[in-house]
Write a structure and sequence with these properties.
Number of helices: 17
CATH superfamily: Cytochrome Bc1 Complex, Chain C
Bound molecules: protoporphyrin IX containing FE
Mean pLDDT: 96
Distance between the termini: 25 Å
CATH class: Mainly Alpha
Strand content: under 5%
Low-confidence stretches: none
CATH architecture: Up-down Bundle
Shape: globular
Radius of gyration: 24 Å
Structural class: mainly alpha
Largest sheet: 2 strands, antiparallel
CATH topology: Cytochrome Bc1 Complex, Chain C
Number of domains: 1
Length: 422
């Protein structure tokens, strides 16, 4: 699995006995203790660990919530209220889960943009990146289905709007879209049947997600971590063991992240949600303004920017699918990191701005000037990936990176006297 030899030496008879039969301790030691980590990682490299924490926290809180939640149209809303009022610490567990979903997305977006900035997706990390995109899709599907479960007004109408998107396929094969929508609903309208199947899938998908994360981390440990210079580890001086160096940095970052997380949980538990979800689902009353959770807003803006329904749906799914091809769309082969790409750097920040602008526009009504700007930013989003990345990669004059990771941290001292670099 790893590209370095294990120096694990089991102490005592019991440890030796295990090691000869099931070398789990050896595996953990090789992969998470001795594992060579670039010595120059900054705090953006702590988000993988933070994400792993988020996943475990969502699973733990979700499993407890599932013990009290009732997945039927008649009982769901009240059961969520009962969890908040009558279950011991139910208010805390339910808020940890709801706020936790948002924090998970905060972390995943930082993690993803880190990858785009430092070119972490470039060879040999293409599979690692692609697994990341599938993880993102699984997270989105899980979050969407989870949002349906409280069965409030926004839950109900979000399910109605999003499942209805599939009806756009009717314009390719008449009847196909409608059949798919009815199949998803389990009937001719969004009902308690729809809720029950969403609950089943909301419980299943996190385990698929966990499987994808295991593959993601496995792939990472085959190729090793990249770093802000984008250079590979060449000598011992370029790396430090994962424990205690990277682990303590990860722990510190996780602590800071938890401060923000807990601030929301204890001081603004409803800030990231929508007030309408405190009203029970009502098929006869459409909210004046249906909005998804904040982390879906950029995609929602893309969907509504395009007047033709099918094209809007294709653009929305396309905005994620395009990420799968980034390792090949980016033609810059001389360096990985934007540190040495003076022009790409600006386009990267333009993309960040574009995504934020789309997020803002997704929360606004789809009319007038908002639609105009949503179209401009949607166009740039695709131009960035389909034109800027390939063309810039070929024509940009990149800067010369340092000779090694060690040199980027220690200056010439590392190359002049390797003993100083240990
Ligand atoms: C549940 C979600 C995820 C988890 C638990 C996770 C976990 C991790 C971990 C532990 C690392 C190593 C530490 C680090 O570099 O921060 C990592 C690296 C990486 N992840 Fe993820 N990840 C997730 C989602 C994603 C997504 C959505 C993408 C991109 C689409 C992605 C792309 C990458 C890449 C390219 C690296 C290597 C970075 C480098 O070494 O420069 N990951 N991930």
């Amino acid at each position: 699995m790893a590209h370095h030899e294990s120096t694990y030496n089991p102490q005592g008879r019991w440890a030796k006995w295990w090691d000869e039969r099931l070398p789990v301790a050896r595996l953990m030691n090789t992969q998470f203790v001795e594992f060579p980590t670039p010595r120059n990682l900054n705090y953006l490299w702590t988000f993988g660990g933070i994400l792993t924490f988020c996943l475990v926290a969502q699973l733990a809180t979700g499993i407890v919530l599932a013990m009290h939640y009732q997945p039927s149209g008649a009982e769901a809303f009240d059961s969520v209220d009962t969890i908040r009022r009558d279950v011991n610490y139910g208010w805390l567990i339910s808020k940890l889960h709801a706020v936790g979903a948002s924090m998970f997305f905060v972390a995943v977006y930082i993690h993803l943009f880190r990858g785009l900035y430092y070119g972490s997706y470039k060879a040999p990390r293409e599979i690692l990146w692609i697994l990341g995109v599938f993880i993102l899709l699984a997270m989105m599907a899980t979050a969407f289905m989870g949002y349906a479960l409280p069965w409030g007004q926004m839950s109900f109408w979000a399910v109605t709007v999003i499942t209805n998107l599939f009806s756009s396929l009717d314009s390719i094969i008449p009847g196909l879209g409608t059949s798919i929508v009815e199949w998803l609903w389990g009937g001719y309208a969004v009902t308690g049947k729809t809720l029950t199947r969403f609950y089943s899938l909301h419980y299943l998908l996190p385990f698929v997600l966990t499987g994808l994360v295991v593959l993601h981390i496995w792939a990472l440990h085959v190729v090793g971590q990249s770093n802000p210079t984008g250079l590979e580890i060449k000598t011992k001086a370029d790396a430090v063991p994962m424990y205690p160096y990277a682990v303590s940095k990860d722990a510190f970052a996780l602590f800071a992240f938890l401060l923000l997380f807990m601030w929301f949980v204890f001081f603004a538990p409803d800030y990231l949600g929508h007030a309408d979800n405190y009203k029970p689902a009502d098929a006869l009353v459409t909210p004046s303004h249906i909005v998804p959770e904040w982390y879906f807003l950029p995609f929602y803006a893309i969907l509504r920017a395009i007047p033709e329904k099918l094209l809007g749906v294709l653009a929305m799914f396309g905005s994620i699918a395009v990420l799968l091809f980034v390792p090949w769309l980016d033609r810059c082969r001389t360096v990985r990191s934007a540190r040495y790409r003076p022009v790409y750097k600006w386009f990267f920040w333009l993309l960040v701005f574009t995504c934020m602008a789309l997020g803002y526009l997704g929360a606004k009504p789809a009319e007038g000037v908002y639609v105009f700007w949503a179209r401009i930013f949607t166009a740039y989003y695709f131009i960035h990936f389909l034109l800027v990345l390939p063309i810039l990669g070929l024509i940009e004059t990149t800067k010369k990176p340092p000779a090694s990771i060690a040199e980027s941290v220690l200056g010439d001292v590392a190359s002049a006297d390797p003993s100083k670099a240990s």
